[in-house]
Amino acid sequence: MSINKRGFASDNNSGVHPEIMKAIIEANEGHTIAYGDDIYTDRAKAKLYEHFGNDIDIYFVFIGTAANVLGLHAATRSWNSIICAETAHINVDECGAPEKFNGFKLLSVETPNGKLTVELIQKHMHGFDFEHHSQPKIISITQATELGTVYTPDEIRVLADFAHENNMYLHMDGARIANAAVTLNLGFKKFTKDVGVDILSFGGTKNGLMYGEAILFLNKKLGEDFKYVRKQAMQLSSKMRFISAQFERYLSDNFWFMNAKHSNDMAQLLAEKIKDIPQIQITQKVEANGIFAIVPKEIIEDLKNEYFFYDWDESRNEVRWMCSFDTQEEDILKFVEIIKKKL
Fold it and tell me: What CATH number should be reported for the domain holding residue 246?
């Protein structure tokens, strides 16, 4: 892959949106109090309060893995377990960090589309109050999922109600929460706090930010004393203004929405252009900014050389194509043209 050429590997591979870069530069003027006691962090929190209400706790951290690991830490002890989809980022892509740093056990569930249901997680709902068995404490879902699908508010409410009925909590990994909000055409609060989500990892890096995520305790009692947890975990940024300035801009003027809508639209365009190619099979509903497809093995490497992407399931030649805020229509059209030529 040539240097700086756009591809379809990951929305993490995209650059920083110029508006976000501008916000960082503007925050670089003069001195301000460190560790989050600054006007940029106050304004960023105010933006999040606008979206979620004032009765929440907000903590900025550097990366999504930290948001997930520390958010889960706040509601668990080492003898607890977390129920998640087999494809969940906490289960597959965090190098065992949730279990290493928290001591709890992950209980994964095989799903056809990355989405948990009460029926699917029932197999793990046993051993309560039995000291020989890890105690289920959190159901963790990803929105949008790692397979590009999106939970409806009703689906989330059912899981939240089930969790609460069993003295458990619901955690949401929202690395692509903006893409889900666009798909649902709803504000963030409508499919998180309003339907019972307790802890939210609120992401922006995959949608144009340079770095930085937020842990939102929508169930505010879970955020008690969390400032000490964040410090011990080495996620308290001294120059937090450079994270906060990004979030302030991101959450202003529907900026987050425009970025996510563009990446979703590009995914829909790509899906539309390839759906009638008989040698290619789209394997999941295209509901956010990712396309999963089975592609003839003999052309995969050649396609990667033109527009880089990742394999998803090599055993059946399934690949993942991710669109980003900076994906251009010409990228889609050229890529499809190359696919047709290779076939």
Answer: 3.40.640.10
